[in-house]
Amino acid sequence: QVQLVESGGGLVQAGGSLRLSCAASGSIRSFNVMAWYRQAPGKRRELVARISIISGGSTNYADSVKGRFTISRDNAKNWVYLQMNSLKPEDTAVYYCNAVTHTNDYWGQGTQVTVSS
């Protein structure tokens, strides 16, 4: 059973930075894609950033975070990271790690990110 555990959330002032980490219980090479999503109160869960595991590590970002957030992976440690810079109050949300295989879709429990103005 795959488990994803997020860490690194917290309270930060606008303009600050945080790095989220996602630790996978198994090898991330078993996944096709890993991603970070977020859900703010009263809003739908949305994709923040995605990284391909099986095809060269290509990445995709939501328009709202392009140029500020960077997703990366460490295959040896089975970790995926989200470096978040120039944070804005509208980035406040619970951030979830997601991993996808051909047949399954896995989610972590989430980590709260709060950006104060």
Q: Which blocks of ≥5 consecutive residues have pLDDT under 50? A: none
Let me know the number of strands: 11
Specify Rg, calculated over alpha carbons: 13 Å
Mean pLDDT: 94
- Judged by helices, strands and strand pairing, the structural class is mainly beta
Gross morphology is globular
Q: Give the N-to-C terminal Cα separation.
A: 40 Å
Give helix and strand order, one letter per element, not per position. Answer: EEEEEEEEEEE
How much of the sequence lies in strands comes to: over 45%
The major β-sheet equals:
7 strands, mixed
- The level of helicity is under 10%
> How many individual helices?
0
Offer a few descriptive terms.
single chain, 117 residues, mainly beta, 7-stranded mixed beta sheet, 4-stranded antiparallel beta sheet, 0% helix, globular
Helix-strand blueprint:
Elements: E1 4-7, E2 10-13, E3 18-24, E4 33-39, E5 46-52, E6 59-61, E7 69-74, E8 79-84, E9 93-100, E10 105-107, E11 111-116
